[in-house]
Design brief:
Blueprint (H helix, E strand, L loop, with lengths): L27 H4 L2 H8 L3 H15 L5 E5 L5 H9 L6 E6 L2 H13 L6 E5 L10 E7 L10 H11 E14 L3 H17 L4 H11 L6 E2 H11 L3 E8 L2 E7 L1
Parallel strand pairs: 1-2, 1-4, 2-3, 4-5, 5-6
Antiparallel strand pairs: 5-8, 7-8
Helix pairs in contact: 3-4, 6-9
The chain binds ligand GEK.
The site of ligand GEK has 19 residues, from helix 4 and strand 2.
């Protein structure tokens, strides 16, 4: 799946050597290449997005709210908007990058869907979760400081209706060092096959080192169980990228 085209929507952020590598930020330079970046970096991203629409269709309850927390350009929001079947639903999409939300607003306007979407620029720690039937954290929790994750998951659990779900997708780590090394190697091979150079892979890795903090699947499952979720099961995994469905 090598990307042959190279234009202003192609991710070349780490293509040239940088004297020093700042921590990764979701700023304007990232917004313009984000769809290309995430598709070439996260194995299974498109499948997960499609399945979020399917899962939202199955679990959304009439007259409830569906949340997309860390919504970026609104890919999961759009999947939900077109997948929801229950009457009277609304979607709340939250990101703390104004640049992301500005672009998401244009994309949502151009989209033909008529389900109402509220875009909020704020830290997801500050978002009230109320009357929720579906909450999506699609590769967002990994950017929240580890010590704040339990409070966020508890807040989501409290705001969900009975039978409501949390879809939690994350880059994960493994406690067995050999397996961890294998998964990282296979992920890097995936990125190479998608046209990223060794320099791009290593500079991006350094930029993410302090801001993207993966945990094990067991840690995520324990945290969700601790918050009260009745079940927390993995429904997708490719290498060190996984998505879980937690049901209240
Ligand atoms: C997708 N879900 O395409 N509060 C609000 N937003 C945050 C916070 C926070 N505390 N921390 C990070 N973000 C999307 C992909 S990207 C994943 C999610 C990635 C936002 C951040 O600004 C960015 O837009 C998003 O979470 C993470 O399905 O790039 O690997």
């Amino acid at each position: 799946m090598t990307s042959s085209k190279s234009d202003s929507s192609t991710d070349r952020i780490f293509a040239n050597p940088l004297a020093s590598i700042p921590d990764f930020r979701f700023d304007e330079s990232v917004v313009s290449v984000f769809p290309d970046m995430i598709r070439r970096s996260v194995p299974g991203y498109e499948a997960i997005i499609n399945m979020i629409g399917e899962l939202a269709g199955r679990y959304a309850q009439a007259n409830s709210t569906c949340y997309d927390l860390g919504s970026s350009l609104g890919a999961a929001t759009l999947a939900m908007r077109h997948g929801l079947r229950a009457e009277g639903c609304r979607i709340v999409s939250v990101d703390n990058s104004q640049a992301m939300l500005d672009r998401a607003a244009t994309i949502l306007q151009q989209d033909g869907g008529n389900l109402p979407v509220e875009l909020r620029c704020e830290d997801i720690a500050d978002t009230p979760i109320e009357n929720a039937s579906v909450v999506v954290l699609n590769f967002t929790l990994q950017f929240v400081p580890v010590e704040r994750r339990a409070a966020l998951i508890e807040k989501i659990y409290q705001g969900l209706l009975p039978g409501g779900v949390l879809i939690l997708s994350e880059k994960v780590s493994f406690s067995d060092p050999q397996h961890q090394a294998l998964m990282i190697e296979l992920h890097h091979n995936f990125k190479r096959a998608n046209g990223y150079s060794e320099l791009e892979i290593s500079q991006k890795r350094s930029a993410l080192e302090k801001v993207l903090l993966p945990e094990t699947l067991a840690t995520h499952q324990q945290r969700c169980k601790q918050a009260g979720f009745a079940s927390v099961d993995v429904w997708f995994q490719c290498f060190n990228f996984a998505s879980m469905l937690a049901i209240k």
